[in-house]
Write a structure and sequence with these properties.
By secondary structure, this protein is mainly alpha-helical. The protein is built from nine helices and no strands. About 25% of the residues are buried.
């Protein structure tokens, strides 16, 4: 709560230091799967801009490949909130396209868990029923 308050009321330099600490050791998956640090990451995703935001996106979505941290946290009980936040705060076509690629690969698996269904709902609200999702509800 203290760190989230700092993020809400602190200066840009404070936010940068928090993000630096979260990304420093490459432990973004562990932080995303932890009850308290996942809340801090969510807040960072919500308020970060510019270079700080880009670093967070890179940390979760990576360049190419189909196993970035986003894919590894989406079914976790705390990590799924980070996945939903990434979907909700995406704003460029490149970000949304990357999310579509990853979600398409994970769609069948998402429908089999409650956390996955929350991600599916967030994706459909933000990204619409793009072709690979149309007609797939995860119910088999």
């Amino acid at each position: 709560n203290v760190i989230r308050a700092l993020l809400n009321h602190g200066r840009a330099g404070h936010v940068k230091k928090v993000v630096d600490a979260m990304l420093e050791e490459g432990n973004v998956i562990n932080f995303a799967k932890n009850r308290h640090s996942s809340l801090v990451l969510e807040k960072c995703l919500e308020i970060c801009k510019g270079e700080c935001r880009e670093r967070l996106w890179q940390a979760f979505l990576g360049e190419d490949g189909m196993n970035p941290p986003f894919m590894q946290i989406m079914l976790d009980r705390f990590g799924n909130y980070i996945s939903q936040r990434l979907i909700n705060v995406s704003n460029s076509e490149a970000e949304m396209q990357r999310l579509r690629e990853l979600l398409q690969a994970a769609w069948p698996k998402l429908g089999k868990s409650q956390n996955g269904k929350h991600i599916m709902n967030a994706a459909q609200k933000k990204l619409g029923n793009f072709p690979m999702m149309a007609g797939r509800t995860g119910k088999n």
